[in-house]
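Action item from last meeting closed. Structure (717 res):
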């Protein structure tokens, strides 16, 4: 906003500066004109002071540089010619201090007529004649010492406004008196002398008056010029200060844009980190859920293992009791075996029974031993499993799992409540759905008769449409006037009545017989006319088809050529942009699907930038982008000349170097004329043409042939 405010003030400041510059130029021109006029008048007056005929004589007698009488007197405005006519060449008299110094000259008289006037003489002005105005009253001497000479020379000289008045007053003149008019005519009692310029003295008094006025105007003009220059200097200072502020704000704006770009990158990076954190959080949540499920499974397995361990302990205790019982039975069996062996000879059947029992007991003992071994292995395996589970239980931290389990249980309760609510809502929706279904069945039951009626109506409508078409065909064939028939229709009439009327009319038509005997000839002529019109229509249709085909072909060729041109320019842009920027990429993009109606948008990304819009580029980057596009078009259709007007103004040295390299390369096919203030770009030129202003308001063109200058330098070396 501050930059925009300063930019808004800049045109006003520039306009003020321009107006002040114009005012200064006008004052300088006026001052120059005044100085030129003053110089011309002073030159004319100087000729009277430096007469060539006796300039050396004056210098030899020390009279050079003395003032003249016309420099020491003033006359009223408008009476200059009258004073010149009265004094004539005495106006050019030299004003000296003493007339006695002429004695020293002896016979050395001046080579031309010369009047010397002493500045120390006094005199008396005689009383004027009654009714006359003396000329002496209109003349003023700057030096009081000249009053006597003026009184002497202008005595009895009176003024008249014109020649007529002078002629009327001449009879009253005193002897020796004379009248002089504004025009310089002299009138005495007996003579009239017309005035005419006779020497260079003519106009000397007017010129002297104008010189004094010009000197005053010149002083005022110098003061005005100094004032205008001061105002112009202040305006230039204000504009320079404004431009410096604008430049500072632009630099600050560029820095802020860069910071904004960095902040955008930071925001994007933080957004990516936030997205990664969100994804990681979801992953951790899933892992925690899996851990919770696994913990539940492990807890169930642990409970199952503890239960199984208890069962194994109980089984072990039971098997231990069985082993003890088996050992007691074995001991009893051994005792019985000893007794049976002792009595074996005594009872065969007891021996056989004892042998059978012995075999049975041995089998039982083997089975019990195997069972004891299996039980011992199971006990050992269970003990190992129990130790492993005990170690796992000892190393397992149930705190987080218990917390997670508690949270999972809380979530489960919440979800069960939500599920119950959803089930209730589902039951309500199902009930509403059942009611809706019942209503739908009732509506479908009601719709069936309506569908039947609609079918009947459709059949009737089809029948009516067929009748309408048939009647319309009959009306068309008969050439009836439908509007007249419509007016004759009576509300409530039936088709049977119309049919009877039609039959009656047909009978009347038949009764009338043939009326128009030339109808066939007219039909033939109409058919020929129709054939001619059909041929014309076919020709027009063919011409339209030809035009449409030509338009399509032109559109197709235009699309192809425009697309080829677009692709070629796009390719050149893709090559020239990295050349000017030292990297990056640029391309042209169509903004519409139809190339003939589409606009073209340029997408440029200098190296190291990820700008979303071309407006984020700096002034130099925009200039290089525009040059890339222009040179890409020049490659497509090179012109013999190319004029570049300060295109390198916003570029720094490195970008200027790349720009110059590209211009040198393209100068092989195109002659470049460029206006620049950049020294690097000037070094590229083969011919330099400059404009200088050594004098105010006067411009000079200076041209330098670089190759000729190099040859002269080498030759001099």
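Sequence:
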């Amino acid at each position: 906003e501050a930059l925009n405010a300063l930019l808004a003030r800049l045109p006003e400041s520039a306009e003020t500066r321009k107006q002040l510059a114009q005012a200064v130029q006008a004052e300088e021109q006026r001052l120059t004109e005044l100085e030129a006029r003053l110089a011309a008048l002073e030159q004319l007056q100087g000729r009277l002071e430096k007469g060539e005929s006796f300039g050396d004589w004056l210098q030899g007698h020390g009279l050079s540089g003395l003032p003249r009488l016309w420099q020491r007197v003033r006359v009223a405005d408008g009476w200059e010619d009258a004073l010149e006519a009265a004094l004539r060449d005495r106006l050019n008299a030299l004003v000296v201090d003493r007339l006695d110094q002429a004695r020293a000259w002896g016979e050395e008289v001046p080579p031309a007529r010369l009047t010397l006037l002493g500045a120390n003489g006094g005199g008396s002005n005689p009383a004027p004649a009654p009714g006359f105005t003396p000329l002496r009253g209109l003349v003023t001497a700057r030096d009081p010492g000249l009053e006597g000479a003026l009184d002497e020379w202008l005595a009895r000289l009176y003024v008249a406004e014109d020649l007529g008045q002078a002629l009327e007053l001449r009879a009253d003149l005193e002897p020796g008196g004379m009248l002089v008019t504004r025009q310089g005519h002299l009138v005495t009692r007996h003579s009239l002398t017309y005035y005419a310029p006779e020497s260079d003295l003519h106009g000397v008094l007017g010129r002297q008056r104008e010189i004094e006025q010009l000197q005053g105007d010149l002083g005022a003009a110098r003061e005005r010029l100094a004032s205008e220059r001061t105002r112009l200097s202040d305006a230039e200072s204000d504009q320079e200060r404004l431009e410096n502020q604008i430049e500072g704000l632009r630099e600050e704006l560029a820095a802020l844009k860069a910071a904004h770009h960095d902040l955008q990158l930071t925001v994007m990076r933080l957004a990516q980190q936030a997205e990664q954190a969100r994804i990681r959080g979801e992953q951790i949540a899933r892992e925690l859920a899996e851990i919770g499920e696994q913990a539940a499974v492990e807890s169930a397995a642990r409970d199952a293992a503890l239960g199984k361990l208890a069962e194994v302990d109980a089984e072990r205790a039971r098997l231990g009791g069985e082993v003890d019982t088996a050992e007691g039975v074995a001991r009893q069996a051994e005792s019985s075996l000893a007794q049976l062996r002792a009595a074996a000879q005594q009872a065969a059947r007891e021996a056989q029974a004892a042998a059978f029992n012995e075999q049975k007991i041995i089998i039982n003992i083997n089975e019990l031993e195997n069972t004891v071994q299996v039980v011992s292995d199971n006990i050992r395996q269970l003990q190992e499993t129990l130790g492993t589970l005990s170690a796992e239980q000892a190393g397992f931290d149930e705190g987080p799992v218990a917390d997670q389990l508690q949270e999972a249980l809380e979530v489960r309760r919440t979800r069960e409540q939500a599920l119950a609510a959803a089930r209730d809502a589902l039951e309500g929706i199902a009930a509403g759905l059942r009611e809706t279904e019942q209503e739908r069945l009732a509506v479908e039951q009601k719709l069936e008769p309506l569908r039947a009626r609609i079918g009947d109506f459709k059949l009737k409508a089809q029948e009516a449409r067929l009748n309408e078409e048939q009647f319309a065909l009959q009306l068309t064939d008969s050439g009836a006037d439908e509007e007249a028939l419509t007016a004759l229709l009576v509300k409530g009439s039936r088709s049977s009545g119309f049919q009877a009327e039609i039959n009656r009319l047909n009978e009347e038509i038949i009764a009338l017989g043939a009326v128009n005997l030339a109808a066939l000839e007219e039909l033939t002529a109409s058919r020929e006319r129709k054939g001619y019109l059909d041929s014309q229509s076919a020709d027009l249709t063919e011409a339209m088809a030809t035009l449409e085909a030509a338009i399509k072909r032109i559109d197709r060729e235009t699309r192809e050529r425009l697309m080829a041109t677009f692709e070629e320019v796009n390719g050149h842009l893709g090559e020239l942009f990295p050349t000017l920027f030292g990297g990056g990429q640029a391309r042209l993009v169509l903004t519409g699907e139809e190339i003939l109606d589409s606009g073209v948008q340029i997408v440029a990304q200098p190296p190291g930038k990820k700008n979303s819009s071309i407006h984020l580029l700096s002034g130099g980057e925009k200039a290089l982008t525009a040059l890339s596009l222009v040179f890409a078009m020049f490659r497509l259709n090179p012109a013999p000349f190319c004029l570049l007007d300060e295109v390198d103004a916003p570029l720094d040295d490195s970008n200027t170097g790349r720009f110059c390299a590209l211009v040198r390369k393209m100068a092989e096919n195109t002659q470049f004329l460029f206006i620049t203030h950049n020294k690097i770009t000037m070094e590229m030129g083969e011919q330099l043409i400059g404009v200088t202003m050594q004098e105010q308001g006067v411009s000079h063109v200076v041209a330098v042939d670089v190759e000729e200058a190099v040859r002269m330098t080498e030759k001099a070396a």
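Note appended to the action item: The mean pLDDT is 77.
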